[in-house]
Amino acid sequence: HSGSFQLYCIGGRNEDDENISSVSKLNTTNKEWTSSSALSISQSSFGATVIDKRIYICGGLTDKDSKEFKVFDCESNIWKELASMPSERSQFGMTTLNGIIFVAGGHVGSTPLSSVSKYSPQTNTWTEVKAMNETRNGLELVNLNDTIYAIGGCGTKTVERYNPFTGEWSYVASTHNEHAWFGSTLHQNKIYI
User: How many other CB atoms are there within 10 angstroms of residue 60's CB atom?
Assistant: First the structure.
């Protein structure tokens, strides 16, 4: 859409391969970067999603508890702690569906995961949902037409979709190649990776 928007760069790793806690904001109108409220801990490889001018982040590689879950209010520039994730995970997929946040796959240590959890911002609670059919770490999780797609991950080119009405995961057409730690976007009712 036209008009001004802001881009946030949150945490990650520095040139010495150390987790960082800084948060920077780019104003696309005047093309200026400014500092925002930093994370309470240094963090990388976490999941992030946006609902109504709030950035939710969880998991990843941290100096403390990787189950930590927090929200950043872009208007007040304040971080708030929320209910912790049910289990640790990093390099997982994260998306929203009808105002509910889903996290799927990833790994704990060297163990890949197939588990899936959902978070309700209204009740500040996590619930486990049916696990994916296979473990996936480094996957992309995408919501298209009220259906969640788990795409690829380390060592696989398979794709599964989650039907929120039946609570079931089913396989769909695979990608041509294995993909892990990649990006995705939606355009004209299609998923691009």
Answer: 23
